[in-house]
Design a protein that fits this description.
Helix content: 25-40%
Structural class: alpha/beta
CATH topology of the largest domain: Adenylosuccinate Synthetase, Chain A, domain 3
Number of helices: 13
CATH superfamily of the largest domain: Adenylosuccinate Synthetase, subunit A, domain 3
Number of domains: 2
Number of strands: 20
């Protein structure tokens, strides 16, 4: 049996929430290992809709341990609100089924303010397209060794020194940006006020996970965003502030790389992204708008419409390589039902030269032109299919060609938001 890492293989929003929920029935532990509450997951279970941003998707399943790892940046105020919202829907969230790493970095109000100010002042050409929730500035403070961590809330006597160190960076930065000064006493008061709501969940996550692994428990690592938003391997600088590739599951949870087993890459049957940045296969026509309408392509957290385009095999090949993807979970194939033809980008043309990879530079990424192969569409529907026999032959041909182009097999095929509408080819936990 293998532990399983689930990562997005495009720019996020691929449907990870449903797949993680589907896999969580066989998992004992579900771990979020990076990102923050800028990641939105929607779960549809027996008609009930659950919208998560920070909590692991396994939280809605009784008997599962949900863990927020040290690789996450945690907004304690948002965590408290999300817990209460789920409780309002009848989901039990308590200290028995939720653990938060004691060394997790906290997002503070000054991070949110700085994020929003930078984004607003960058202009249309310079804006990254962040959610303005303080994710990037919190990661900056983490690597700058001045962050406030969850365990610091349990030691208020030493918090003054740590806040002073934090403000030694932020005070001159805020003055330079024309932002009002922040009082250290106010930061401490805010933290002490929220502390009782979040400290009960604090735990030595690395030790807990290692004990579970050695006991033969199945661990499901849940990533946020997608491979193309990885701060090293994505469309930099239009990326998130953490490593979204599967390797981050180890460092972001406190386990060694040997704990990471099967890597499942989630990929849509077409391509979307939110925010700015290169998008070689983006469609600015009626076809792109139709995909967006049929796919209900609106951000879970932000409400921003997603940019839509044809499937880009070059990008997914890149994700397969950088995350070591073992198999794919293909989602939203049903959105392409009824199209007279569908296209797949098989390569790029860059300055007249044919290439089969994503170039590293921003300027080159902006210049690449997609090379398409056109397929006839299919009659009938793939929606709600639960076996290959339910799929039109042309749809199967489309899926098989994707496998060939990206160099990874389809292990799961999702045919609706409902968890039972899934075709299983290979169980990742039985790899």
């Amino acid at each position: 049996m293998a532990n399983v890492v689930v990562v997005g293989a495009q720019w996020g929003d691929e449907g990870k929430g449903k797949i993680v929920d589907w896999l969580s029935t066989e998992a004992d532990v579900v771990v979020r290992f990076q990102g923050g509450h800028n990641a939105g997951h929607t779960l549809v279970i027996d008609g009930a809709v659950y919208k998560l941003a920070l909590l692991p998707s396994g939280i809605v399943r009784p008997g599962k341990l949900s863990v927020i790892g040290n690789g996450v940046v945690l907004d304690p105020w948002h965590l408290a609100k999300e817990i209460e919202a789920l409780r309002g829907q009848g989901v039990a969230v308590d200290t028995d089924n939720l653990k938060v790493a004691e060394n997790v970095t906290l997002i503070l109000p000054l991070h949110r303010e700085l994020d929003a100010h930078r984004e607003a002042g960058a202009g249309p050409e310079g804006a990254i397209g962040t959610t303005k929730r303080g994710i990037g500035p919190a990661y900056e403070d983490k690597v700058g060794r001045r962050a406030i961590r969850l365990s610091d809330l349990a030691e208020p006597a030493s918090l003054d020194v740590k806040i002073a160190r934090l403000l030694s960076h932020h005070e001159p930065l805020r003055r330079g940006l024309g932002l009002p000064a922040v009082a250290a006493a106010d930061i401490k008061a805010e933290l002490m006020e929220i502390a009782p709501a979040v400290l009960p969940y604090m735990a030595p996550v690395s030790t807990i996970l290692d004990t579970a692994r050695r006991a033969g428990k199945r661990i499901l690592f849940e990533g946020a965003q997608g491979a193309m938003l990885d701060v090293d391997h994505g469309t930099y600088p239009f990326v998130t502030s953490s490593n979204t590739a599967a390797g981050a599951a180890a460092t972001g949870s406190g386990l060694g790389p040997g704990a990471v087993g099967y890597v499942l890459g989630i990929v849509k049957a077409y391509t979307t992204r939110v925010g700015g940045g290169p998008f070689p296969t983006e469609l600015h026509d009626d076809t792109g708008r139709l995909i967006g309408t049929k796919g209900r392509e609106v951000g879970v957290n932000t409400g921003r419409p997603r940019r839509c385009g044809w499937f880009d095999a070059v990008l997914v090949r890149h994700a397969v390589r950088t995350s070591g993807i073992t198999g794919l979970a293909l989602t939203k194939l049903d959105i392409l039902d009824g199209f007279p033809e569908v296209k797949i980008c098989t390569g790029y043309r860059l300055d007249g030269e044919l290439i089969d990879r994503l170039p590293a530079s921003q300027a080159a990424q902006d210049r690449v032109e997609p090379i398409y192969e056109t397929f006839a569409g299919w009659e009938g529907t793939t929606a709600n299919a639960r076996s290959w026999a339910d799929l039109p032959a042309q749809a199967i041909k489309y899926v098989r060609y994707i496998e060939e182009l990206v160099g990874a097999p389809v292990s799961l095929l999702s045919t609706s938001p409902e968890r039972d509408d899934t075709i299983l080819v290979q169980n990742p936990f039985q790899d």
